[in-house]
Amino acid sequence: SWTMSSFVDATVKDLREQIGEDEQVVCGLSGGIDSTVVALLLHKAIGKRLTCIFVDNGLLRMNEGEEVIGYLREHFDLNLVWVKAQEEFLGRLKGVDDPEKKRKIIGHTFIEIFDREAAKIDNVKYLAQGTLYPDVIESISFKGGPSVVIKSHHNVGGLPEKMKMGLVEPLRELFKDEVRRVAEELGLPESIIWRHPFPGPGLAIRVIGEITEPRLDILRKADKIVQEELRNAGWYRKVWQGFAVLLPLKTVGVMGDDRTYEHVIALRIVDSLDAMTADWTRLPSDLLARMSNRIINEVKGVNRVVYDVSSKPPGTIEWE
Ligand code: XMP
């Protein structure tokens, strides 16, 4: 639309002025729409003087890194560093089951790795990030995950002295729906524009209890089915978020003549405007039935699926 194309032009012009002629800028890519839009605006403004860092923490959904980063690599000539840090994250999370400890470990590890990578670039003067207006007015209270840590720690002086950087936040006056319109203007595909919000700590807070590779694997497979079925039924864009959660318990079932004792998957699908409040989505029962049948038939190790019918408040959207 007219307003969004003028937003893009004006922002690109402002960014060029703010950043200057020689300085380098670094930006963290998460795979979500906000950081992707920030990266593309900066790329338009300063081209290769922008370096994007994507830290793969091993806690992403199935193919998520490949989908978003692969797309950017194919379509834009970005300087893009893809850090494969799965082992570092999962190693430090070993044996940890407390949700806040998980968040802290993931947040600190992210900052450590991001700073390590950023320090390799000469003359970095700015950190670009996808702060939105609601973050600015702090109306969304995240639980202290990395997106918030990274959004705040540079302001509070958490970086080593030699790495003091200025902040570049081109989206700080926008709401989510406006970011989506800018993304359309920039030509991003629907699969990125309408991607559901995904928490910084990723699947770590959806594998309830200890995080292990086999448990992540079960959750990834179940979650993929939820995403597919939501899309196929035309419900993906109608809901705020929809995902699977792996519970830390096993229950009894039957298969043929045998008794099974396997994991439980909870489905969490909610309607919301801003994540402050939410209600569970009244999905058609045949869609729920399809998700349940597919998960139980296709995901080894799961014999039961339940639907979360709690609203927020008092329930939160995530289970941890
Ligand atoms: P809750 O569970 O608090 O979630 O109702 C509200 C929204 O925030 C997301 N969320 C997080 N995002 N780091 C993030 O970056 C976190 O630690 C975190 N915890 C929750 C959640 O997915 C929902 O969109």
TrEMBL record:
Catalyzes the synthesis of GMP from XMP. It comes from the Bacteria. Keywords: ATP-binding, Glutamine amidotransferase, GMP biosynthesis, Ligase, Nucleotide-binding, Purine biosynthesis. ATP binds at S30, G31, G32, I33, D34, S35, T36. Pathway: Purine metabolism; GMP biosynthesis; GMP from XMP (L-Gln route): step 1/1. One of its GO terms (cellular component) is cytosol. This is GMP synthase [glutamine-hydrolyzing]. GO terms for molecular function: ATP binding; GMP synthase activity. It is an enzyme of class 6 (ligase). It catalyses: XMP + L-glutamine + ATP + H2O = GMP + L-glutamate + AMP + diphosphate + 2 H(+). Homodimer. Residues 2-195 form the GMPS ATP-PPase domain. Its EC number is 6.3.5.2.
